[in-house]
Amino acid sequence: MMEQRLFDEEINLFSIVSLLRRGVASIVVCCSVGVLIAGIFLWRSQPFYQASAQLVLATASNPTQLDPNAVALVEPREHVTFRLQSPSAFDQQTVSTCSGGGVATSEQIAHNVRVKAPSVPSDVVEISFTAPTPELAQQCVAAIVRGVQEQQTSVASDGLERLKSKISSLQSQLAENSNLLKQAQGSEWQQAIYLATRDDAIALRKDIADLTAKLELGKSATLLSPIYAPPNPASPTKITILSAGLFIGFVTGVLVNLLKDAYVIQRNRRRRPKS
């Protein structure tokens, strides 16, 4: 049983090799035609270039019981990537920049933009865009980055304004204490007022310093590296297209030979005289 299986496999392998040898001319012709068609496609198709940028997202103070100086992203990375998938994320200025003097819509921009969130570092997103020229791709990525930065600044502004308001209020209280001491100078109540407001002033200065430090912990969204667009087009790729043309030509040549052999066998059967 094992010997019969090996014998059948040898016959099948011999048949395949024999088929390829008999039809080598037609296979070469089909492969040449496939590569030629792929070359014409590359010549006729419009190249597209891709520009990309790595953006460090904005952070703000997010104190915890274990770490009062902890910081966190003003919005999760998932929110940024999800928002940039929607056409509504792109304002008219971005659409105008990405059009390159032509006609473009926010739907087309959402289709051509790609946003990735690498595993590390956890505060970076990679934004890329494809366009007919590398210059236009760079301009569009710059416009998209600007929109993200403005959105992040808007999200962080509420928390920053609250911190600034608290600092301003504490500074006003500290100024009132200082004015009270100035008014009491030379009077018999100066010593008593000083002792009464001393601890208050120390606590106010400490709170102001803490809030100022938290205010300085926040950072706006910045580029990790300059926007870059390689000079070579991202699509279509020559190797991929030519390899596909060669493969399709080879498969077509094999199928042509199979059909040719099947036709010859069928014709011989019809011509064979009946006993």
Automatic annotation (TrEMBL):
Organism whose genome encodes this protein: Rhizobium laguerreae
Pfam families on file: Wzz
Subcellular location(s) of the protein: Cell membrane
Main location: membrane
Record-linked InterPro entries: Bact_polysacc_biosynth/exp (IPR050445), LPS_length_determ_N (IPR003856)
Keyword line: Cell membrane, Membrane, Transmembrane, Transmembrane helix
Entry coiled-coil feature ranges: none
Regions crossing the membrane: 20-43, 239-259
Full protein name: Polysaccharide chain length determinant N-terminal domain-containing protein
UniProt superkingdom: Bacteria
UniProt membrane topology term: Multi-pass membrane protein
Record keyword Transmembrane helix present: yes
PANTHER family the record matches: CAPSULAR EXOPOLYSACCHARIDE FAMILY, TYROSINE-PROTEIN KINASE
Occurrences of domain Polysaccharide chain length determinant N-terminal (ranges): 9-64
Lineage: Bacteria, Pseudomonadati, Pseudomonadota, Alphaproteobacteria, Hyphomicrobiales
